Amino acid sequence: MPRANTKTKPLKATPKTARKTRSVAVKVRDSEQDSSSLSRMLSTLQLFTREHPVLSAEEIAKGAGVPTSTAYRYVKQLATAGLLVRWKGGYTLGPSIMELDLQIRECDPVIRAASEPMRTLCAQTGLNALLTKLYGNKVMTVHIESTSDTGSLAYGRGRPLPLFRGSSSKAITAFLPAAKLRRLFENGEAQGDEQLNDWESFHASMSNIRRQGFALSVGELNSGIEGISAPVFIESRQVVGSITLIGDAARMALLREEVVIEMVKAAAATVSSALQ
Fold it and tell me: What is the bridge-based pairing of β-strands 84-87 and 225-234?
């Protein structure tokens, strides 16, 4: 008896199948373009600074590197969302940003978990406590509990910190995966960061912070100010931020450094436990 032919013939693409495939490809490409355009539009908000609080559409176009017609489209959409408002022939940041800031203060899980332990640290030491978080490749102070004025801080709430200076940043970067830490180091080195030595020395200093479980700095961000920081983790030991106590030399001299270090580490551990 002749053997049955079990080979499967390859399916030929029908015009209908081809049209469907092209349609899916177009939708994916359009989605990527929309995402890229949205990212560029939102990034224009970073053009507004203390030195340049009001910008025209033309200035936004120049700063963002887009055509003026595109800048006008961005401005219209951002103004509709309340992120920009008209002001004297230009635009300035709008009230929706303040609403979002309030939501972050009230709803951010890390801030909610850290507020009470930070207040306890302040009460026990008379020092000021900072909560610093990691956002992509940026480190930023997002919450402060204070016993005294913190207005003189060079890097207060909302101002990005240097990645490799100050105990708040070091207590975060030291616990990043090695591959990411190496990329950040190479990027900082390429930008001429004078705080960076060779990779071996830098990696050794980061490894030492990991072993100790805390970072300490004196005068690296604010003259005469000492900072002691410990990392905050979520699941799988992923670092998301740090808790820091800061004080001037006179105040710090009244306290036993080893005791303060253990207090900061315990507070950070409490916050990490609450976030699991």
Answer: unpaired
pTM of the model: 0.77
> What would the mean pLDDT of 50-77 be, rounded to a whole number?
94
Close Cβ partners of 82 (under 8 Å, ≥ 6 residues apart):
94, 95, 96, 99
Rounded Cα distance between 172 and 95, Å, is 32
Q: Which residues in 101-219 belong to E strands, given as ranges?
A: 128-135, 138-145, 160-161, 215-218
Which of the four pLDDT bands, split at 50, 70 and 90, describes residue 26? very low
DSSP 236: G
Spatial separation of the C-alpha atoms in residues 167 and 199, rounded to whole Å: 19
pLDDT value of position 19:
55
Percent of all residues in the chain with a pLDDT value above 90, rounded to a whole number: 59
Structure tokens at 119: 């207040």
**b/e map 137-172, b = 16+ CB within 10 Å:** eebbbbbbbbbeebeebebebeeebbbbbbbbbbbb
